[in-house]
Amino acid sequence: MKIGMITQWYDPEPGPASLPGVLARELVKRGHSVNVVTGFPNYPEGLLADGYQLQPRLRETLDGVNVTRTFLFPSHDDSLAKRLINYGSFGASATALGLDSLRGADVVWVNYSPITVALPMLVQRYLRGTPIISEVADLWPDTVMVSGFPAGSAVGKVAAPVLNAWVSSMYRASDAVVHIAPSVGGILAERGVPAGKITYVPKPANEQVFHPGGQSMRVELGIGEDQIVLVYAGAMGQAQGLDTLMTACKSLDPERFVCLMAGGGNTEEHLRSLAESAPSVRFIGRVPQEQMTDLMATADIAYISLVEDPLTPLTMPSKTQAILASGTAALVAAIGDVVDVVSSSGAGLAVNQTDPASIAAGIRQLAALGRDGLSTMGATARKTYQDQFSLAATTDLAEHTMAVAAGRTALDDTGTPSLSTVPLRRVHIESVARLHQQAFPEFFLTKLGPGFLREFYQGFLEDPTAVSSVLLDGSGRVRGAAVGTTEPAGFFKRLLKRRLVGFATKSAAIALKNPVHAPRLLRAVAYRGEVSDNLPGAALLSSICVDPDLQGQGAGRQLLDAWTNQAQRQGASSVMLTTDAEGNDSVNAFYSRLGWTLHDEYSTPENRRMNRYVKAVNTSASERISEDA
């Protein structure tokens, strides 16, 4: 594939800013062409990296990746105004000067933090029609609201709805929304992102740097072989809340324990002053990226700390994967996802970040294991990394997500080698509309034309209750489609509202061309779903069509099973559909063979007799349907 990437952060920037490059290089190794639009490297100090000078645009090739850098205002200090200028300048220059390098891309991966990348992203999506994947690393607008606007402030009250609308527009424009912390998926769903778009793709570590086998720095740092070493490496800011670590270290014996503080930030001087009465603490400054392997080899314990705020439970600091990849036991002073990963796997211990006594007790508990015991815990940490976060595993997920968005491959292996199922994506809409016309040439919706059908299917991309499945052959050609909703009572009203302009335009043209269609057209546009009151929690299959050339080959069953399974994953207790009762024997027999039960019959305003079929997807639903029937 030809893959594009838009990210403000890229090599040679260190830490989390280096991770887009990790993904890009691995994709190149797998045979893809990768073009990156990024800024000039200035993270984390707001100073340009050696060898770079600000200019409108710079093109370079790094490890096989084509990189286009565009102008930005370098800044990473505490000034909110400067940060906004930093973010905004990149968004504007990337749009004006960077997007020409993404022409012809099959899919574009967007690191959506900061959200000023919305400008180049939306231009690429709507002017070029490129499928977009948004990666939610820092949840917006929460990030800026927590750090930039005091809760309840006048500015915050004005900014919140604007930022929420901004972010929502990015989600709508995305074919997939990737999150890197497990709990964020639920938040995205609550905010209206369709379940079919949400994908968990965790971040790996930079495996060129973080791995076992480094050379310990104990001798050069004057640390004894018997001393337990805790390393904190990273930013020293308000968000890390390292004051309590300094206080905890005051009670620890410097003859048996050493705390190494590597990195820097706006609280460093304050932390140094606190550590004056903690002889076990040593500040060693910023450690070059190429020396981090050796620093981690020096550590018996690595420290992760986050102050408690609304985002903490949803945050997975990139140092988590770095520590696990290095095979080092972790001490986690935080709450939420990071604690779940470390504690549940036995890779470390969790403590209360706000309580120095808890931190000191945690250090003593780990130190009591001795260096050999901590080495064993470190081996568990390494296995946890390999199982959950390795570059190979996470790139498999990312590559698969990009291929699905571009209409190139299957979402899972539930199908035969020649047929597979994926969620509905924008790239499928045109083909699905044509297939609908081919499969149902005499149906009313077909007679409304391809434009109306495109509007109809487009609505299933934008609703959080939508359930969809598309059948692809080995070449990526659409051979079937099934769409529906877990909330049929309100879905079609929302569809009409969202697609009002498109439906109105197409409907007016149809009514003028053939007035006889007007009454039924009005009913079709106002359709709310034929919902049965005694089937609460049932998902509605609104439309299913299969290429006539595949009839009798199991394709319909595969597609219907995939749709039903997805409805179950989205919380449906049962599924239902309607089909013609007369002159439709083969279709009715098909549903019966697959375990669908005839629930009731009804007639449409056109006196068209319809059968309603239901199928339970759990035991309780089966019992309820049996009683109702």
Automatic annotation (TrEMBL):
<dbReference type="Pfam" id="PF00583">
    <property type="entry name" value="Acetyltransf_1"/>
</dbReference>
<dbReference type="InterPro" id="IPR016181">
    <property type="entry name" value="Acyl_CoA_acyltransferase"/>
</dbReference>
<keyword id="KW-0012">Acyltransferase</keyword>
<dbReference type="InterPro" id="IPR050194">
    <property type="entry name" value="Glycosyltransferase_grp1"/>
</dbReference>
<protein>
    <recommendedName>
        <fullName>D-inositol 3-phosphate glycosyltransferase</fullName>
    </recommendedName>
</protein>
<dbReference type="Pfam" id="PF13579">
    <property type="entry name" value="Glyco_trans_4_4"/>
</dbReference>
<dbReference type="Pfam" id="PF00534">
    <property type="entry name" value="Glycos_transf_1"/>
</dbReference>
<feature type="domain" description="N-acetyltransferase">
    <location>
        <begin position="419"/>
        <end position="615"/>
    </location>
</feature>
<keyword id="KW-0328">Glycosyltransferase</keyword>
<dbReference type="InterPro" id="IPR001296">
    <property type="entry name" value="Glyco_trans_1"/>
</dbReference>
<keyword id="KW-0808">Transferase</keyword>
<dbReference type="InterPro" id="IPR000182">
    <property type="entry name" value="GNAT_dom"/>
</dbReference>
<dbReference type="GO" id="GO:0016746">
    <property type="term" value="F:acyltransferase activity"/>
</dbReference>
<dbReference type="InterPro" id="IPR028098">
    <property type="entry name" value="Glyco_trans_4-like_N"/>
</dbReference>
